[in-house]
Amino acid sequence: MMEKYCSDAERIRENVLQIRSGLREAALAARRDPSEVRLVAATKTQSAERVRAAIAAGVDAVGENRAQELAEKWEQGAYEGVPLHFIGHLQRNKVKLLVGRCALIHSVGSAAVALEIERQADKLGLTQAVLLEVNIGRENEKSGFLPETLYDELPQLLALQCVDVQGFMVIPPAGVTQPNYFAQTKQLLIDICGKFGHTKSIYTLSMGMSDDYQRAVMAGAHFIRIGAAIFGART
Ligand SMILES: *Cc1c(COP(=O)(O)O)cnc(C)c1O
């Protein structure tokens, strides 16, 4: 009985340690300081208890995908001890569930969503840190800003008073290693900083999941978002 009770949390703990060591290995291979890279547990569909196990195992933050699920687990006290992030597709009408709860929203995919965050953050008298989701693979079915549109769209986003744009988030086409979309994203960040960096500091890259996080870390990721490799395959 006891052994069974312990084993799930124990497995999550071992998985987190394994990711930590893979993260460290990739960072050092790229001559980066491993502490520059934060491990975000992607907790969609996971119970509050399993989220707590990941936090106890030492993840740096947890990231949810659905605003409603986040609100429910928030009520259950699932997130205590680490910053809560939002990483899922974000619709305007869900923004108010997130502002004031999330330390960072990774997935702002349109100016309309950014403007709604501005409105809600202003109401609460706070500044909301966000990343812009970039559709780096230019996939039709994916949301996010196309890289080339950012040059036109950024000035109005950087002018927002209660939204702090800190960088980019990408989900590259699955299973594609060439071209290196992580390196392209890093280059985009460098180009954008060259153009707009004097107004606000845009420096953060959220990229890399269970199957490709080491490549993302080598290319310059600051947040990796890991689900299956921590919690097991989703059913
Ligand atoms: C589910 C999810 C992840 C984690 O994916 P895994 O392959 O399970 O590691 C990362 N980012 C986003 C946006 C996700 O929805």
Structure description:
The protein has 235 residues and is an alpha/beta fold. The chain has helices at residues 2-29, 48-56, 67-75, 95-98, 111-124, 150-158, 181-196, 213-219, 228-231; strands at residues 38-42, 61-64, 84-86, 104-108, 128-133, 163-169, 204-206, 223-226. An 8-stranded parallel β-sheet has the order 7-6-5-4-3-2-1-8. Helix 2 links the parallel strand 1 (38-42) and strand 2. Bound molecules: pyridoxal-5'-phosphate. The site of pyridoxal-5'-phosphate has 13 residues, from strand 8 and helix 9.
Which characteristics define this entry?
235 residues, alpha/beta, eight-stranded parallel sheet, 8 strands, 43% helix, 16% strand, binds pyridoxal-5'-phosphate
Secondary-structure map with pairings?
Blueprint (H helix, E strand, L loop, with lengths): L1 H28 L8 E5 L5 H9 L4 E4 L2 H9 L8 E3 L8 H4 L5 E5 L2 H14 L3 E6 L16 H9 L4 E7 L11 H16 L7 E3 L6 H7 L3 E4 L1 H4 L4
Parallel strand pairs: 1-2, 1-8, 2-3, 3-4, 4-5, 5-6, 6-7
Helix pairs in contact: 1-2, 1-8
Bound molecules: pyridoxal-5'-phosphate.
Which class best fits the helix and strand makeup? alpha/beta
Ions, cofactors and other ligands present here are: pyridoxal-5'-phosphate
* SS elements, strand count: 8
Helix content class: 40-55%
Q: Note the gap between the termini.
A: 24 Å
Return Rg in Å.
Answer: 18 Å
Topology order in helix (H) and strand (E) letters = HEHEHEHEHEHEHEHEH
What is the mean pLDDT?
Answer: 94
Quick overview of this protein structure:
With 235 residues, this protein is α/β, with parallel strands linked by helices. The chain has 9 helices and 8 strands.
